[in-house]
TrEMBL record:
Family matches, as Pfam families: Acetyltransf_1
Protein name (database record): Acyl-CoA N-acyltransferases (Nat)
CDD domains membership: NAT_SF (cd04301)
Species in which this protein is naturally found: Glarea lozoyensis (strain ATCC 20868 / MF5171)
Lineage: Eukaryota, Fungi, Dikarya, Ascomycota, Pezizomycotina
InterPro entries attached to this UniProt entry: Acetyltransferase_Butenolide (IPR053144), Acyl_CoA_acyltransferase (IPR016181), GNAT_dom (IPR000182)
UniProt KW keywords: Acyltransferase, Transferase
Length: 169
């Protein structure tokens, strides 16, 4: 049963952010995953990438001044589109960084999330550097969750598909 929300779009001069699945450019995402600037990700099989994208709510950022409308940024939510969303794989290509596009991308994601009346919470993994913590705090109101607060713990386990080291290997 598919109960997906209708696609959304946001525009600026020569730029588009869209959740339309047909606009996503898997080859651009694969190239980003294979780059040094995305140290937290790694390339995937074509089938794995296709399944990942089809099971996520994707936000593509496109340069509309070029005829082929290249994808220059991306983010995705792993979500039921009602109560919970996990934000991951957020990037802006290095040539387009430091121009406010990352802030715009997360503000569009935040606007979309705020339209869900039964949303309970969001989650993202980030390194513990001050920059990302401040960026997501300002853009989305996120903050580190102290372990054990309110009797809650966040439990994780990494597997071999992680670009980060897997404990014990």
């Amino acid at each position: 049963m598919s109960t997906s929300l209708p696609p959304r779009e946001w525009t600026r001069p020569n730029l588009l952010i869209s959740t339309k699945p047909e606009l996503i450019q898997p080859q651009a995402i694969q190239a980003a995953f294979d780059s040094e600037f995305m140290y937290w990700a790694k390339p995937m099989s074509e089938d794995g990438l296709k399944r990942m994208l089809s099971n996520s709510l994707c936000f593509g950022l496109y340069n509309t001044s070029s005829p082929d409308k290249p994808q220059i940024g991306f983010a995705r939510l792993i979500t039921d589109q009602v109560t919970f969303a996990y934000l991951t794989d957020v990037y802006i290509l290095p040539a387009h960084q430091s121009s406010g596009l990352g802030k715009w991308l997360v503000s569009c994601i935040q606007e979309h999330l705020e339209s869900w009346p039964e949303l309970r919470g969001t989650l993202l993994y980030s390194d513990d550097k001050e920059g990302p913590v401040r960026f997501y705090a300002q853009g989305m109101g996120m903050k580190p969750y102290p372990q054990g607060k309110d009797g809650l713990l966040i439990l994780t386990r990494r597997f071999k598909g992680s670009a980060m080291s897997v404990p014990g290997e």
